[in-house]
C-alpha cells in the first residue's frame, strides 16, 4: 500500500510540474506575441537630416539660450530694445550718427554725475570694467574673417570664369531676389526683418518641431521632384552641365 501511495504521489507531482511548465511556456509565448503585435516606433526624420537637438546645433551656449528664449525676460528685453531702435530710425527718421552721439552724451553725463555725487549721498561710485581686447582673440577673429573672405573670393572667381553654370544661375537668382526685396524695403527694415526671423523662428520651430518636420519633409520631396523635372527638360540639354554629368 505504501509503495502504491508513493507511486501515486510521484505521478501527481510530475503532473503538477508539467502543468506549471505548460503555463509558463504559454504565458511567455503570449507575451512575445503581444510584443510582436505592438507597433514599433519608427524614428522620426528631422528636417535637413538633423541628428542633434536644436540647442546643440545652435552652439549650445548663451547665444542659443537667447535665440530659443530659455530666459523669456532677457530675450524679450533684447527684442524690445532692437524694435525701439528700429522705430527711432525708420519711424521718427533718426540718423545713426546722431543716435550714437546722443546715446554717448547721456551715458557719459549719467556716469560723470554719479561718480561725483556718490560721496555726497554716501554711496559707492560706479565701477567700470577694464575692457582690453586680447591679442589672441583679435588674431582668432582675423583668422576666421580671412578664411571666409578667401572662400568668397574663390567662389566669385569660379562663377566669373564660367566653370560652374549651376552656381552661376543660383547666384543670379539669389541676387535678383535680394534686389527685388531691396526695392520694396529699406536696408534698415530688411535688416530688422532678418533679425526678427532669426530671433523668433528657432523658438517657434522648437515648439512645433514635429509638425514642421513633417511639412518640411514633404516640401523637400516636392522640391526634389520639381528639380528632377527641370533637370530633365532644361538643364540636361545645356552642354556644360551634360558634359559634367558624364564626367
Automatic annotation (TrEMBL):
InterPro entries membership: Reticulon, Reticulon-like
Source species, domain of life: Eukaryota
Keyword Transcription regulation: no
Name assigned to this protein: Reticulon-like protein
Topological relation to the membrane, as annotated: Multi-pass membrane protein
Disordered: annotated segments: 21-47
Subcellular location: Endoplasmic reticulum membrane
TM region(s), chain numbering: 103-121, 173-199
Main location: endoplasmic reticulum
One Gene Ontology biological process: response to bacterium
Domain Reticulon, residue spans: 63-247
GO cellular component: endoplasmic reticulum membrane
Transmembrane as UniProt keyword: yes
Cross-referenced PANTHER family: RETICULON, RETICULON-LIKE PROTEIN B15
Keyword field: Endoplasmic reticulum, Membrane, Transmembrane, Transmembrane helix
Amino acid at each position: 500500500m505504501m509503495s502504491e501511495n508513493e507511486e501515486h504521489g510521484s505521478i501527481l507531482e510530475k503532473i503538477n510540474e508539467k502543468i506549471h511548465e505548460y503555463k509558463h511556456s504559454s504565458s511567455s509565448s503570449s507575451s512575445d506575441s503581444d510584443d510582436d503585435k505592438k507597433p514599433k516606433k519608427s524614428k522620426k526624420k528631422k528636417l535637413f537630416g538633423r541628428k542633434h537637438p536644436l540647442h546643440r546645433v545652435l552652439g549650445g551656449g548663451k547665444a542659443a539660450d537667447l535665440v530659443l528664449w530659455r530666459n523669456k525676460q532677457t530675450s524679450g528685453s533684447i527684442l524690445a530694445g532692437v524694435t525701439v531702435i528700429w522705430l527711432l530710425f525708420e519711424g521718427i527718421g533718426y540718423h545713426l550718427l546722431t543716435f550714437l552721439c546722443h546715446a554717448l552724451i547721456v551715458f557719459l553725463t549719467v556716469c560723470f554725475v554719479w561718480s561725483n555725487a556718490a560721496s555726497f549721498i554716501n554711496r559707492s561710485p560706479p565701477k567700470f570694467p577694464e575692457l582690453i581686447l586680447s591679442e589672441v582673440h583679435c588674431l582668432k577673429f582675423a583668422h576666421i574673417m580671412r578664411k571666409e573672405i578667401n572662400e568668397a573670393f574663390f567662389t566669385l572667381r569660379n562663377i566669373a570664369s564660367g566653370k560652374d553654370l549651376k552656381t552661376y544661375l543660383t547666384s543670379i537668382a539669389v541676387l535678383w531676389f535680394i534686389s527685388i526685396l531691396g526695392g520694396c524695403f529699406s536696408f534698415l527694415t530688411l535688416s530688422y526683418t532678418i533679425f526678427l526671423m532669426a530671433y523668433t523662428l528657432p523658438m517657434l520651430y522648437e515648439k512645433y518641431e514635429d509638425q514642421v518636420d513633417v511639412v518640411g519633409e514633404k516640401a523637400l520631396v516636392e522640391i526634389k521632384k520639381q528639380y528632377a523635372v527641370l533637370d530633365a527638360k532644361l538643364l540636361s540639354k545645356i552642354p556644360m552641365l551634360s558634359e559634367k554629368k558624364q564626367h
